[in-house]
Each structure stands twice: as structure tokens, then as C-alpha cells.
Design brief:
By secondary structure, this protein is an alpha+beta fold. It is built from 3 helices and 3 strands; from the N terminus they run αβααββ. A 3-stranded antiparallel sheet has the order 1-3-2. The model has no long low-confidence stretch (mean pLDDT 95).
């Protein structure tokens, strides 16, 4: 069940990132309407699949598609 949720959440994040040059965690939360734990679950999934890259910008997580 958690694996399905992670994949579904990752899809929401991927879709949001595909429409931009990259987003901060705060922007991703707003765009996807995800709570923190689900947002980071999806980000972890995408990182594991090597679909996104992350960095820190002004003290906040920034993610973009590879």
C-alpha cells in the first residue's frame, strides 16, 4: 500500500515539475496539495528512480527534473 502511495505521490510531483524549471518544497506543496510527509515520500521515490535532482536554495529544498 505504501509503495502504491509513493508512486502516486511521485507522479503528482513529477507532473508539477514538468511544467516548470524547478520548484521549491513550498511551491511543490502548494502545486500538489500534499502534506510534508507525503511530499518527501514522493521526492524520495523520484530521487531513487534518478528522475529528479535536488539542491538547497536559500535554505530550502529545490527540485527539478533531470
Amino acid at each position: 500500500m505504501l509503495k502504491e502511495k509513493a508512486g502516486e505521490t511521485a507522479g503528482k510531483i513529477w507532473n508539477a515539475l514538468s511544467e516548470s524549471e524547478g520548484l521549491t518544497a513550498k511551491q511543490l506543496k502548494k502545486a500538489t496539495k500534499l502534506v510534508d510527509k507525503d511530499l518527501y515520500l514522493g521526492i524520495g521515490w523520484l530521487l531513487r528512480e534518478d528522475k529528479i535532482s535536488t539542491s538547497e536554495v536559500d535554505g530550502e529544498l529545490f527540485a527539478k527534473l533531470k
